[in-house]
Amino acid sequence: MGNPHSGDAWQPAGKTNRTSSRKINSVCRHFILLTIARKGVIFVKREFHPWKEPTNRRKKQREAPRPPRLINVRWVVTIMAVSLVLSMTMSYLSSEALNNANTITSFIVLFLFIALGIVFDMIGVAATSATEKEFHSMAARKVKGAREAVWMTRNAEKVSSICNDVIGDIAGIISGATGALIVAHMTAGAGALRAVIISLAITGMISAMTIGGKAAGKGIAIANNGKILAVCGRVLSVLPIAFDKKK
Asked: Are 123 and 210 in contact (CB under 8 A)?
């Protein structure tokens, strides 16, 4: 019964066959190694193959991010309406002030419009260069105008658009129109050469004062942005508008 040379012969009870034990041990070892190897392959597939990932994760990866809106249509329409009203108001005031004014009064009105453009250009630059951290402690101590200053820093793009583009450009246009009225008053009845010289002189003076004033004002605004916004915040705090709740 069995082949004693191959190790599969029958053995009496209580005795072992070393050859059979080796075969069984070898088979079990190969089975364990194969099982581990198969589990390792499954683990590698789960680890490195993305197509085995859950469906929700794949959907999130496939969803392309939405591009940001480049143009805020509502803000553009609002700023156009504000520009229209301000330009009409300032043009009317300047024309009424210069109708029966003499030359000195006309120059005073001209300088006021140039200064208005420079001041609002400084406010716009201060809003874009300042940070809201320096106003947090002031707002915590309930300093007047601190919340409005924080609002200006958070909405620096809108503040700069209003101050630099709307009011600054309108002031520049009206100062040019005021200069043209001054030239018309000063050259009434004058010769052609004198009219050309006066026109060139006043036009150059307006351009030089406007550009030079804004160039100097930008440096001052960047160096003193906190003080400028604190003053603007105090002015805005008088208005019956909750700027700290707006974004």
From this structure: no
